[in-house]
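dumping this here so i dont lose it
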């Protein structure tokens, strides 16, 4: 908006191009989900990841969370998975995945088998990773739609991301991306984009997604905390960013 009250032509052009490009992230996300999970789609979700260790453990852990939520007799205590009897607190031996259980439970409520629900959970994790990464890049780094879409595709469906199919506990990365976005919004000195919320809301978001990541998978939370601490130390050491 110019001082004379008229809309700058370049601004209106960017707004129009943004509206025109709005379906692009959705189409690219659908393309990524189709490409990465093609064996699952064509097999009717009968083709499970071949590795016998992590996928089966993750499936059991998610199923334990579902059965705890439904209060099945052997799963009434969340921290006492019915394994290694009489050893207590067995659930804490691995990533508890309770923070990402909301992507698994609805499929079980709808009648899907546990292995099918796991595969649908993986697809949902990848889609949410893409959505959160897109928000981080477009809102946090403020790049254009095309750049944010390409970056989100690499973060959700690139080589390192597809390897996580054999280690599904590492798939939910969206909490980390939202935590990074919250840090951008909390410490940003740039004029806020509309719609915008205050730093206090973003502080709540940061604390919430950090806790959810901790109660989902420990390693992503650990590295997020380590690198955030390094960034904090660098920021404090520089006069330009110390006050902020």
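and the seq i came up w/
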């Amino acid at each position: 908006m110019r001082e004379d009250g008229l809309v700058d032509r370049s601004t209106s052009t960017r707004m129009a191009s943004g509206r025109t490009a709005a379906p692009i992230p959705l189409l690219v996300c659908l393309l990524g989900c189709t490409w990465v999970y093609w064996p699952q789609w064509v097999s009717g979700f009968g083709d499970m990841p071949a590795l016998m260790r992590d996928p089966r453990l993750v499936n059991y852990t998610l199923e334990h969370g579902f059965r705890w939520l439904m209060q099945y007799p052997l799963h009434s205590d969340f921290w006492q998975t019915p394994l290694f009897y009489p050893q207590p607190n067995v659930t804490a031996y691995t990533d508890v995945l309770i923070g990402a259980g909301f992507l698994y439970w609805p499929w079980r409520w709808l009648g899907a088998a546990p292995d099918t629900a796991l595969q649908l959970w993986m697809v949902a994790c990848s889609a949410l990773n893409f959505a959160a990464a897109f928000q981080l890049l477009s809102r946090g780094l403020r790049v254009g739609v095309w750049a944010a879409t390409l970056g989100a595709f690499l973060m959700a469906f690139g080589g390192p991301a597809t390897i996580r199919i054999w280690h599904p506990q590492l798939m939910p990365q969206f909490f980390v991306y939202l935590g990074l976005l919250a840090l951008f919004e909390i410490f940003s000195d740039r004029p806020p984009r509309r719609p915008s919320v205050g730093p206090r809301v973003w502080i709540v978001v940061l604390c919430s997604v950090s806790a959810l990541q901790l109660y989902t998978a420990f390693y992503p939370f650990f590295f997020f905390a380590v690198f955030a601490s390094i960034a904090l130390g660098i920021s404090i050491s520089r006069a330009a960013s110390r006050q902020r």
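The longest helix spans residues 114-140.
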